[in-house]
Amino acid sequence: MAATCSVSEPLKNGLDDTSTPLLRVEIHDHSGRSYHAARTIPAGTTILEVDTPYAYTIWKPFRNEVCAECWRYDGGRRSFLTRKDDEGVSEESAEGSGGGALPSNGQDRPGVGAGLWFCDANCQGRWLGREGRETMRLLRVLEEARRQKEGDKDKDGGFRLEDLGQTELSRENVDRAWEMVAQKERSPKEVRKWRNIQLDHFETDVARYVLIALVHRHREAHGEMDWERGRQMQAGEDIIDRSSVQEDTNTIVQFGGARWKDFAALQSNELRHLNAYPELLENQIRAYQALKGRFSSSHIRASTSERRTGSTDGRGEAQLAGGDQQSHNPQPLHIGQGDIGAFRDFGSMVTIDNVRGAFRVDPGNSFGIWETPMTDESELMGFAVYPKPSFFNHHCSPNVTKIRKGRTLGFVTTRPIEAGEELCISYGHVEMMSLQERQRELREGWFFDCRCSRCVAEAETHNFKGLQK
Ligand SMILES: C[S@@+](CC[C@H](N)C(=O)[O-])C[C@H]1O[C@@H](n2cnc3c(N)ncnc32)[C@H](O)[C@@H]1O
Questions:
Q1: All structural domains of the chain
Q2: CA 416 to CA 19: how far, in whole Å?
Q3: Complex ipTM, two decimals?
Q4: Which atom, in ligand 1's list, is nearest to the CA of 365?
Q5: Which atom of ligand 1 lies at the shortest distance from residue 391's CA?
Q6: pTM value?
Q7: 306-325 burial string, b = 16+ CB within 10 Å, else e?
């Protein structure tokens, strides 16, 4: 039964932009926003197709076995991956919507890459065209935070769950944990220490997910204009002031048809997720601290002004972060001339609100990046959040199936659909399970009590107490 009055304001956000000629969003009492058919739809119709996620990560064990662009995986074989990071890309050829024609400055710490492998120059070019070479640099800086050996977390200044002195992760306690971090970051000295935080693989991988989201938010905030300006500076062209068209160009900065406001307005499962896995709070806060320490605005600002006053070494480069990193990171990381526009104020994106916002929406909305074709043996290689498809609710007898081709997600009807009918996918492989098994699976894996029409009908028939209409 669809309702329109029982939802909070945040839940309503994003509704305006989500309807398409085939889909409209309705709000249900027990399951929130959900796609419905705007008219009759034949079986086999692609009702939504989204070409790229807003944020995603590939888990470290798969990083050098999966193409970073098309997500091709060949059972662990690597011979099809012929390009790494920006290797083989000339300075001029990395242009695109990301405006990525920035020089490889030769200063990046040897051995630390951005962690991106590609099938070939096409995949590499597509990635660079969308994300820009600057994003590669940011990923490289973050990779320096990846702990190479098991270390002692206690002494690195990063948050520990024990610091909270509470085992129960109530709303108040989670807020208090973040507030403790907010207090600490009022001291620039403390934030400088966070540059030395070393993250474990999981923490680094989730920090990469956040970083991609923040880069996208930054791109929206600054519009294409700065990227274009950086490209012009690099190419030695006259800078054309296009500030009058910034608003127009802003509207085209989207990733998978979505903007930050769509991403951040997705449903949050923060508390239920943290209660199931309390150590995640430590992982998330440490990831935040490492990002903050490495990308802090004040550090970038100081460095960019250095460049402007010519106090760098004359190679026209501005220091980004890591100038005084720990001893095994002796070389400072630099960004190239022209990056000023692209990076300007990137550090201001690294706020508790933004980072917590990105973590909050991941558990309820992320799609697993599975090896295809999907079998029982398929590997889970990472996860991705696509805001538009996140409005599909789950049904234990779904009428829509999800198909991944590369990083594009397509949604196809599996039977004829009546106008007004709810359109649902299946979140897991639960169709063959009993009512009790399905309920347990969805509660434990997805943190909700399934109230799809099949579960509700079966619960009534079997007098199953767990579900009420
Ligand atoms: C990916 S979101 C789907 C969109 C969501 N309804 C919203 O308003 O943003 C997944 C969440 O939707 C709700 N949901 C989806 N399918 C459901 C179902 N069959 N029964 C109850 N809740 C459901 C759950 O709260 C779940 O965590």
A1: 2-52+386-433 (2.170.270.10), 55-362 (no CATH)
A2: 20
A3: 0.99
A4: 1
A5: 4
A6: 0.83
A7: ebeeeeeeeeebbbbbbeeb
